[in-house]
Amino acid sequence: MPKQTTAKTPDVSMAVEHPSMEERAARGREARATVPRSRHGEWPTEADRPDPVSWLDGQGESRVAELVPMRYSRMLVSPFTFYRGAAYLMASDLAATPRTGLTVQLCGDAHLSNFGSFAAPDRSLVFGLNDFDETLPGPFEWDVKRMVTSFAVAGRDRGFDTKERQQINLAAARSYRLAMKDLARLRRLDVWYARMGVDEIKKELGAQLKSGQAKRFERNVAKAQGKDSMKAFTKLVREVNGHPRLVSDPPLIVPLEELLPDLAYHHVEDALRDLLRSYRRSLRGDQRHLLEGFRFVEAARKVVGVGSVGTRAWILLMLGNEGGDPLFLQAKEAQSSVLEPFLGKSKHANHGQRVVEGQRLMQSASDILLGWVRSDGVDGVARDYYLRQLWDGKGSAIIEAMKPSGLAAYAHLCGWTLARAHARSGDALAIASYLGANDRFDQGLAAFAGSYADQNERDYAALKQAVDSGRVTAEAG
């Protein structure tokens, strides 16, 4: 793992076209002739659709083999957790649907649990998308369909009736459409600076949530505000012979010295130091100076997420002014986006850079220590990583406790947030013109979400049957 390189930024000096506002609006209206808005409601199950378990199993070939059974275990908790881990399946399905040709930077996995709070550089909490492992340019509707469908699946998981679920699905699609209409009228700089802070969320939700839900929201905000490196230090570090050491909680957290024999351990620890030096070169000068004030102490492998289980993820403990001044970084492996087989390869040679550049483009504010690196592992395989602060104000809604009104309000927030993220990279005016003033798009997306939620349940059942028959193994961690 001694060789690390950062990717060179591609040349972007080519001429940029600037069509008139009339031309941009016309492009959106013309896209309706290619893909009428009502067609978004179609989900014709193909007879020759690939076996979902084979596709999921294929993803495991590039992952840590001992962790793949844990991924299946987490996906089998419910159809909703299955949906969270099945972005590849849905990308394959969406590839068979008509495309508008209106391109944005896609999140690639815009389900409702990938929205949440995080700390902006000014330390205020903002709400936005917070997972970009699959980001890639593509048709805007792919993200919207994945987002709205996630509400359809979650509504079923919560036991809401058909009418309640329909209203929630419509709320998500409507919010996206109306937000894009508003964003299309703004100056480009205003779109770029637009963001949803906690105070705005409180105001937005205040009239929609009952007192119990409002109090729960307040508790979630307080919890997120307390999630920083000091909180991580308290939770993840113990003192051994007067020195801070990362806790061991296998298989979820395994310190490096436990994971590898002595010789390999020291080899990888030295390589991690080299990795940090190489990662620093992907940061701005002032951020690089900040990071250089911390020394590396220890690393541990950490299991993260649902769909990400099995990809390599490390937490790195750094210290500045000794024990009272910690910095926790997370280094997460960045593999090819699940969208690439259907939309083409990324322009970035390093997938860590693909994630970072996509995140910066879609988020209103990003982690100041967000960067990337390529590293050779002990097995001699070069892998891409992106690094960021661990936790740092990260919080998510507790869907399991939401009532229909709460989930509908959350759908409204997510719809606005996704539209704002798309408006930064795509043509908001063209998309708004395509969406129009009536609810045809909303109705189409709600219908698609219901049909695809059925497909998701069939795929969930297929994985469960594969585990029951012994075809694949699922083990809880």
The end-to-end distance, rounded to whole angstroms, is 28 Å
What number of domains?
2
Shape: globular
* Structure classification: alpha+beta
Average per-residue pLDDT, rounded, comes to: 90
Largest sheet: 7 strands, antiparallel
> Approximately what portion of the residues adopt beta-strand conformation?
15-25%
Q: In percent, how helical is the residue content? A: 40-55%
Comma- or semicolon-separated keywords:
477 residues; alpha+beta; 2 domains; seven-stranded antiparallel beta sheet; three-stranded antiparallel beta sheet
Q: What layout of secondary structure does this protein have?
A:
Layout: E1 4-5, H1 21-34, H2 52-59, H3 68-75, H4 79-85, H5 87-94, E2 103-106, E3 115-119, E4 125-129, E5 136-139, H6 140-157, H7 162-184, H8 188-193, E6 196-197, H9 198-206, H10 211-225, H11 229-236, E7 237-240, E8 243-246, E9 253-255, H12 256-259, H13 262-280, H14 285-291, E10 295-302, E11 313-320, E12 322-333, H15 340-343, H16 351-362, E13 371-376, E14 382-389, H17 404-425, H18 428-435, H19 440-468
Antiparallel strand pairs: 1-13, 2-5, 3-4, 4-6, 7-8, 9-10, 10-11, 11-12, 12-14, 13-14
